[in-house]
Design a protein that fits this description.
With 286 residues, the chain is an alpha/beta fold. The chain has two domains: 52 residues; 212 residues, 3-Layer(aba) Sandwich (Pyruvate Kinase, Chain: A, domain 1). 61% of the residues lie in helices and 14% in strands. Helix 1 packs antiparallel against helix 6 and helix 4 packs across helix 6.
């Protein structure tokens, strides 16, 4: 059984840990409020531009490079979004394992990874996976200009046929306590006939459909990347908030148990001292 001094040291140590986890929980709550609002603001734009392109896909020629899927897909590019820090439950590991599972399912195809987030970079750095590039900027500090440059890069590479399909693996935000790793196909864009989302519409294009697509496609790719990054950031903050809250509650429970042990040990020590005093007094009287 631990002595009084050791128990007091443990109580002090766990209390310090609880203060840290509580502070991290409050920081996560503050961040999730900011990112959640930005994410909710970006969702309608990303969803509507996606629907618009699906409608346009019914009116454009079948040979449009952005809508025409190849019969034989040989090269796949995967954009993986993870976090820069840990202490957020299974947030990072779920995204990484989803990417690994996706790669295994795409066996026989050449794939390349574009990594956003330090945790993903660290994991794949020394593994036998083909990492094309990684984003050197922390996820929280990625600006609109950075995302614009990234979307232009992907569009150029797709036009130059450096890859046949582009996917994004990110963490979809549902609620503060619920999120899940998700995969979306960014390029080529799935035509509406394959999804049944919209009905055929006879559009009159002014200017030409090609000119309209050349303006919409970059906005579509940019909005999807921006939206998935915000979804991931919000999910990460929510996961960290839940993890730190659970850690604080566990620390409180441990402190309670340690205090009980301390009181029990203190009572035992007092009882022992009383018995020694009584025994000594009895011996002197005799």
């Amino acid at each position: 059984m631990l002595g009084l001094k050791e128990i007091k040291q443990r109580i002090k140590g766990v209390t310090n840990i609880k203060q840290i986890t509580k502070a991290m929980e409050m920081v996560a709550i503050n961040r999730v409020r900011k990112t959640e609002q930005r994410m909710l603001n970006s969702r309608p734009y990303a969803e509507n531009i996606s629907k618009l392109l699906k409608r346009l896909s019914l009116a454009v020629e079948d040979n449009s490079r952005f809508f025409k899927s190849k019969d034989s897909v040989k090269k796949v590019k995967i954009v993986l979004i993870t976090g820069d820090k840990g202490l957020c439950g299974a947030y990072n590991s779920n995204a990484i394992q989803t990417a690994i599972k996706f790669i295994k399912n795409e066996s026989g195809k050449d794939y390349s990874l574009y990594l956003i987030g330090k945790k993903g970079i660290t994991f794949f750095k020394n593994k036998h996976y083909t990492v094309d590039e990684f984003c050197p900027i922390p996820v929280e500090k990625i600006s609109s200009k950075d995302i614009s440059n990234l979307s232009e890069k992907f569009i150029t590479e797709f036009e130059e046929e450096k890859f046949d399909e582009l996917y994004i693996i990110y963490t979809k935000f549902v609620t503060l306590s619920k999120n899940f790793a998700s995969t979306i196909k960014l390029l080529p864009i799935e035509k509406a006939e394959s999804t049944g989302d919209v009905k055929s519409v006879d559009y009159i294009f002014e200017p030409s459909s090609e000119d309209i697509l050349n303006r919409l496609i970059p906005k579509y790719v940019l909005s999807q990347i921006f939206s998935t990054i915000l979804e991931s950031l919000t999910s990460e903050s929510g996961a960290r908030m839940v993890a730190m809250k659970a850690a604080s509650e566990n620390a409180e429970e441990i402190i309670g148990d340690l205090k009980k042990s301390y009181n029990r040990a203190r009572q035992d020590a007092i009882t022992t001292e009383l018995l020694e005093i009584i025994s000594g007094a009895e011996a002197l009287r005799q």
